[in-house]
Write a structure and sequence with these properties.
Metallo-beta-lactamase, Chain A, 9-stranded mixed beta sheet, 7-stranded mixed beta sheet, globular
């Protein structure tokens, strides 16, 4: 369960769009949409980043990270420079094994692993991979991670780079889903629509969409029966 609320100050934070929510236990979650696959979650003063890359933002102007999630080792997702800027002595970095082998710090998780590093956070690593034959070289099965975060009793799915894999049907009770949509690396808009129907999240944000025309998703009236589709600036 999650409830949309007005942000306390503005829906533009430091130049980036933001959305705010009340989670299942009444805590406040603010999501800041930075660029591409980079998101910032502020939950009761704790700050989580996904896939920060220094060409996306001046991270020296943003809060330091309590947690950094890395889905995989491609340069538009793993950037040691951005990590160094956001780092503080207590920052926890979670990644897949291939990313861990590059940065050599933090904790690596494989698909299916679950971790509760703090009382306020649960993380589950879930599959992210290509299934179209000529794309499987980009994201092979069992290498990369998506993540399901549980914050305040609400569940947020971050897809990472994946297509509409059968594993998505195993995701249950997702409140907010971030679905990657761009070619040739992740989903077509048709695949994204299929993924939205499989996940059935309360709210879905396409992300990682570069110059993809999202109008087929935005204008698909049938999808409204499965999820509220929200488009935010992530280019």
């Amino acid at each position: 369960m999650i409830e949309s609320i007005e942000c306390s100050n503005s829906n533009i934070w430091n130049g980036f769009e933001t959305d705010c929510f009340k989670t299942a236990n009444g805590s406040i979650l603010q999501i800041t949409f930075i660029k591409h696959a980079c998101l910032m979650f502020n939950f009761n003063g704790q700050v989580i980043y996904t896939d920060p890359v220094s060409t996306f933002a001046d991270f020296s102007t943003l809060p330091k990270a309590d947690v950094i999630l890395i889905t995989h080792q491609h340069s538009d997702h793993l950037d040691p420079k951005a990590i160094a800027i956001l780092d503080k002595p207590t920052t926890l970095i979670i990644s897949n094994k291939a990313s861990y082998d590059i940065i050599e710090r933090g904790i690596w998780m494989k698909n299916g692993d679950q971790l509760s590093p703090y009382p306020w956070l649960m993380i589950k690593a879930v599959p992210a991979y290509n299934i179209t034959p000529d794309r499987m070289v980009y994201h092979p099965k069992n290498r990369d991670n998506g993540y399901v975060l549980t914050l305040g009793g609400s569940k947020i799915y971050i897809s990472g780079d994946t297509e509409d894999i059968p594993d998505l049907e195993k995701l249950k009770d997702i409140d907010i889903a971030f679905i990657s949509v761009n070619q040739p690396y992740t989903m077509t808009t048709q695949q994204a629509a299929h993924a939205i129907k499989m996940i059935h999240a309360k709210i879905t944000y396409p992300y990682h969409y570069t110059d993809t025309d999202l109008s087929p998703i935005e204008n698909d009236q049938d999808l409204a029966n499965y999820s509220e589709i929200r488009i935010r600036q992530l280019q």
